[in-house]
Every structure is written in C-alpha cells, then in structure tokens.
Predict the 3D structure of the following.
Amino acid sequence: MVAIDAAVRDRAEELVATLLESVSIPSVSLTGEGIDQAVEFLVGRLEGWGFEVQVFPTASQPIVYAEIGPKDAAFTWLTYGHYDVYPADAKAEGWKTDPWQPVVDGDRIWGRGAGDNKGQHLALLNAIALYRELHGELPIRIKVILEGDEETGSRPLPEFVSGHRDMLRADLCCYSDGPMFPNDQPVLLMGVRGVLGLEFVATGAKRNLHSGNFGGVAPNPTLDLIHLLAEMVDRDGRLLVPGAGYAEVTVTPAEAAAVASLPLDRDGVVASMGVEPTTADAAAFHERLMLRPAFNVSGFASGYTGKGHKTIIFREALAKADVRLVGGQDPAAVLEAMRRFARERGYANVEIRSLKATPASRTSLDDPFVPVVKKAVADGFGREPLVVPSLGGTTPDYVFTRLLGLPSIVVPLAPYDENNHAPNESTKVSLYLAGIRSGMRLIEALGSRRP
C-alpha cells in the first residue's frame, strides 16, 4: 500500500497530463469530430503501456479493445469506458473556459469529457500501467473495451459483445462511470437505470393558420402535445402509462432496505442543483433516483418565439423526451405501451419515435465481489464507500450482466457536481488519483482470487 501511494504521488503530474491530453481531443460521437484522433491517442498509449490492442470498425465509431497480463492467469478482470463525449458549444452554453482546452484550477480540471468519461477510464488504465511498471507483470489478465458511441446510445456495442463472447470471457466486470455522492463520498453502484430516448411529433393543418380565422375550429398540435405529455406523468413526476409506469415496478424488501440506509446530503444536493429537490426524505429520494422509472421532457419546439407576437396556430409541435427504466422493464414494451396510451386517448395525430434504447441492469447486493471491490476503494480513497443498488443514469451495463453473464460493479470517480452533458464539466485531480490508487489495489486483491 505504501508503494502504491508513493508511486501515484510521485507520478501525479505525469498522470494528470495524460488526462489533459485526452480532454483536448473533441471526440464527439454525434458529429464524428475528433474520433480518429481519440482512437489514435488510445492505441498509442495502450501499446506504450504493453497492451495488445485491436481496433474494431463498427457501423458507427470504432471500438478499441485491449488485453494485458498473463494469458494463463487464474483470474480475468473486464473493464470498460467510452472515449466519446457529449457535444459542447462554448458560446451558446456559457462555458467559462474553452471546453476543448482543459484547465487545471486548484483541485478541479475543467473541460468536456474530464468527468464523463475520460477521467474515469484513464484512471483505471493508468492504474494497470503503473502497477505493471512497479511489479514487472500483472497477477491477473485484464481486458478493456473502449467504445465511441456511448453518448449516442452504444448501438454497436451489443453486437460486438455478442459476436466476441469467447474473447471477452472474464470473472468480473468492474469499471468507472457516473458521479459520486456529494462531498466526494465514494460508492459502489450495483446496477444502472436503462433509458428510452423518444421524439414526439404532433401534426395539424397542412400550413400555419391565422388564430383569429381558425382558432377554436382548427386542431392545435401544440396543445395536443402538451396535453398528452401532461397525461403521461403527474405533477410529482410519476409516469402514469399502464405497462410502462410507476405502478408496474416492484421494489423488493432488500432494495427498499438498501436505499433507506443511504444518507441524503440535502445541502450538497441543493448546492449542486441550485433548487430544492422534489423530496427531502432520504429513502424516497434514493428510491425515485435508483428504483423507479422517470419521465423527462428534454426539449420542446413549436410556434413563434421571436421578438414581438405572431397570432398563428403552428402546424407542428415536437418534443424530445427520455424515460429512465428500472428492473426488468423492456424498452420495446415501454415504447409500445406509450404508443397505445396515445392512441387510446385520441392522440392519433401524435407520432412517437424511438431514438435510443438501453435496458436497465442489476447485480446482487450480496455478490461475493462486493467486499473485495469495497476494500480496494476504501484503501484508495481513505474512506469507506457506500454500496448503492443503482446509478440514476444509464450505461450499457446490461451487455456485461445479461449478454456475458458477469457480475458488474461500477465505481464512479467523478464528483457529484461534474456537470456532464452540461457547460463547465469538470473532475477533481484528487478523485482521479484516488481512482488510480483504488485500481492498483483492486489488481492486488484480484490477484489472490480464484475464478
């Protein structure tokens, strides 16, 4: 442990420089900008660290796959990350720094991808490389998947995993993504919520109409869409669609007990959001965030919103939405339930399109690897982590639990206020280095395990 701490401390500047170089590459999967440079960066670093590297083309962005460690090792650890990032527009979004020019300010590193997910997967990759450098060899075999489509739904990943099951054989999947709890509280996430990305398109007349000449007799797609969305979810955020909503989800006694035991740092939440949460009850807060579906309208467009006023009935209205899925909810079944709900309530003029779909995923809270990973994280951070049933957000965790049949544990390394997908995204130098220490201690612990 002393050797690990000293190695990370002595190499801190070099380790941070690796992250800064990665963040400076605008690897946006939505547009393809910077993808080639990001792949080139990863391949160069991985090969330099001693990994065997392959780049797999897909229908979208390439998947970088790497292996390292003895091929006859008794234990294999599979880890995952994504090198693609969310788009960033410095002027339109109000960034205080250039999102593609990372800035170190005290303990903070500002820049797109610093938290999601470059700082997280690079912490584990640096842990592997540094451990191997210190010891000459690894005690385990390690396999790494780095995809370039996570921010657009990870569409190529399931096919890649299904087509390479033998290559991906492992004993444990453990990776880093998502935010920690407030005040840099480390956590072990035993699952993730799924997501269904949707587009609602309501249509009316063949052209925009004068609201004086046609108001009251012409259909109004803007109001139709507003009414449909309001019928789907109540004021408290509960999804009401039969076959897709709150009522269809069962929370087990073990899950209820797990969320009830978690603390709620209300002040930390308020400081991060700038508003009060919809519930201040700790158990209800965590249950809603981890164990219940949630419906969000992320965008709405219709009519005239410029200077002055136009008296028109706009011919079309569009809304973007996402449903966070839990438990065994099937994205296809949820989509059909929402379409059926719209038809039965008379919204024949509203088309509901699927944009992306990722199922939820869960590993048992009693999995035997929990204490192993928990101790490694506690040693790395100098602080006991909490064991949490689920991440509120989504990763493609199901490809590991459902397709490969592996236990999967997610260890976030980004701060609670990382602002991923938002302006002024950041991570912390201290958390990045703690992640490297945790990864090295996990290698040590897994080296004494049997498959």
Q: What stands out?
A: The chain has a mean pLDDT of 95. The chain is about 35% helix and 20% strand. The longest helix spans residues 114-135. Residues 194-249+292-358 form a domain with the Alpha-Beta Plaits fold (CATH 3.30.70.360).
